[in-house]
Amino acid sequence: MLVVRPARIEDVDPLFELVQLSELGLSTLKISRDRLQERVEESVRVFFRETARPQGQPYVFVMEDLAHGKIVGTSAVYSKVGGFQPFYSYEIKSVVKKSEALGVEKEIQYLDLHTTHDGPTEIGSLFLSPDYWGGGHGRLLSLSRFLFMAEFLERFESETIAEMRGIVHKDGHCPLWDAIGSHFFQVGYPRAETQTLEDKRFIAKMMPQHPIYIPLLPQEAQDALGKVHEKTMPALVLLEQEGFEFHNFVDIFDGGPTLHCETAGIRSVRDSRLLEVSAINEQVDGDMWLISNARLDFRCTLGRAHIAGDSIEIDNVTALGLGRKVGDRVRAVRPRAEKSLDE
After folding, report:
1. Which of 81, 251, 334, 341 has the fewest Cβ atoms within 10 Å of its own Cβ atom?
2. Which of 229, 247, 260, 306 is catalytic?
């Protein structure tokens, strides 16, 4: 059985070992063990607080294979971006250039550096062991965060974003970085990617502040703007099904799209419901549901359940994984967007 729960201090070593399997472009995972431990420690503290305003705290989750006692995935929610460490992105804008003498009128796109100090909530740091790809495991790992957010909306901003991994090749070649950033920073993409997690002030010091006209970039860099890495396509489709949209903001290094959605409008937040456990049986004749224990000591899994009104019947394995008994509350939503809870 796979369960998503908050990361603990004792998870740091297996979690660090897991994320070493991640590839270039997953910048929030490319950190040192000490930095990972600091992030997990901060996450543990915020999970223990009864109340917490969004101030940039990380909520770090892990997926555990209970049968083997093994950490097989991780994801996170950052309650707010900006503040002491600004959030940088490029906004793709357009300007019309016109010459009456030449009889020419042309719309030109350009990149405008956007700095955010009081930003939205961000989801990220999602990685699943390749051994567990398929079977709905990635969907559980990603969507479980939204059930936590639905239960504790006051901990997050009214808007949520997701920075998607852009075009980065295994050899470290990143078309957009090579076309822009490398000329100002004089370091390779992997080094720049890692440095942003330690201190983002170098971006303001070194990145060009003037608009960058897209037609002046190499074609490969132009083609990379707003595009995701091929392995990120499933995550992009899933978030689009949840209601996330592209608003012409891209990552300043790899050009990957930033997706936006009103937090309360995310499908798994909007359609999820609190239900009372009415029965726990060995087997349940019902559909698959994404089910959480609706607590700060969070647990979430996929399980078969039967829902009638405001009551839910779950099986023994699901109840054990969630730590729930008859009379307790859970939060549930269908794992796919094509059906709502009331259908």
Report:
1. 341
2. 229
